[in-house]
Amino acid sequence: MQKEYDKILFDHYQRVAKLNGLGGTCSMEDPYIRESETNFFLKEIGNFCQKHAGDSLTVLDVGCGNGYLLAKISEAFPQLKLMGIEFVPELFELATSREIANCILALGDARELSFFPSNVDIIITERSVINVMNRQDQILVLQNIAYTLRAGGLYIQVESYREPLDLLNQARREMVIADDIEESGHNLYLNESIIASMVQKGLIEVQATYPKNYLSTHFFVSRVFHKAILPKGGKVKYSLFAEFFREALPSGVGNFSPILFRTFKKINQS
Ligand SMILES: C[S@@+](CC[C@H](N)C(=O)[O-])C[C@H]1O[C@@H](n2cnc3c(N)ncnc32)[C@H](O)[C@@H]1O
Asked: Which of 40, 87, 259, when mutated, tests ligand 1's pocket best, judged by the most ligand atoms within 8 Å of its CB?
């Protein structure tokens, strides 16, 4: 059932679907972030496959967009059975047009359990829970994910959180950068207190292959350091300056990236 706030989501994604089509930029303009997210998912899925070699495994992308990530997973792990749920028809059509082998797509709503299959081994979300712009509905999506995973299955989460965004803006204010970075209109960032609702449903955070703050250095360099010393007329986005310092420094310093890389395991509940 559509909610009042969904209109903002539809307007946004119908526009980006038209502009970007099948491109990886459809939901993320920054190529370094996009590539890092993809690598994180591939690494986590690869590790799980290794531990369960010989099993027939299923992966569900909740909010699969134009199918960019599912296509990357299919290329890397052709043996997996893939599934995707997508809410916006224009993006669902784009994902379908890829004709990804071994992949079933559904036009559906992650807030409704009826759209989920059962007993899935791995569920992934890539900035899709934050598109659900009501806290109770976000909890519903996370609970649907918990319910759909089999015991021992993984929920690999790339979502934005409010606490690091606040810290990033604090660092910007210290450098007298005039404007705060705001959540875009089609997002409601998660906060740490939402983790309790996941634990309640048997989703326990586990050590992942990347630190959860992996993108922190990139955010600090590109959104604080670069911005603080940018000369008038200097290149604003994706500059060699920012690239240089990101590469020169270790990744994951501080907690300045709103986008966190997290992995949760579904445990058997008594
Ligand atoms: C950041 S994009 C995901 C990107 C995708 N993984 C890719 O490979 O491009 C988030 C997606 O979640 C979808 N979404 C938002 N709310 C949803 C809902 N209630 N049910 C299903 N999908 C939803 C959006 O339409 C959007 O396509």
From this structure: 87
